[in-house]
Amino acid sequence: MLMSKVELQLFEEVYPQVVPMGEGVVNYASGHALGQGPVIAPHRAPSETRPPQERVVLVWEHVLRRPPDLRTIGPLLGVNVVAPTWFSLAGDQGNLVDRADPAYVTWAHQRGYGVWGVVNNAFDPDRSFDPDRTRAVLTSVERRERLIQQILLFCQTYRLDGINLDFEHVYPQDRDQLTQLAREVGSLAREMGLVVSIDVTPRSTRPNGSLCYDRRALANVLDYVILMAYDEHPAGSPVAGPVASLPWVQTALLGVLE
Q1: Residue 185: its H or E element
Q2: pLDDT tens for residues 206-222?
């Protein structure tokens, strides 16, 4: 990817340190200079803007520390989008941990897969969804801006096709702030020709697990809302059973369409 001198300078400023993690690296992108930088140019022409006309068939690639061994991944029949879990909030200032693998993007594009980078609030280093730290980011205009600038920079740097927001266990009082983050990301990402989606849970009475999503509002500001219609029998369930049986998925789907 060719970058202008200004973009290259901005890229170097937001990589203050590269921390070795086994065979890979984790990049902590500081946001101190991001708000002062230029708007990042689109990495594809407006005519190439997603979403795709075909049905989206997406799989998540669960990445913790090291990138997957691409030699072990066979054909993904029917799949046209892969979503690796590369970007996580680090602390409460709106900075992101970056685990992206350029080789994975090249591998995916060569096989015709779009790549939507997952941005989640599973905070490093403990990898837990923390509603207090999430609130600190969502309720601050400055911290949201820092987060969004980093998201867009990483999309530009790694030639991503889209973004998948995965914010879970958010306080229901912060529902509107989560929608505002989605609105801001969606507006700027579309200018870069990116697709933006968000993951939501089925409707329930769980405050942090379901009432935190304004599903209708999110659908109005983003390209896709992805229903996490699983966990019928999650890890640690005292009873064995399917993860997502057809009746379970149908009930969840009809619930969000009401």
Answers
A1: helix 175-191
A2: 999 999 999 999 999 99
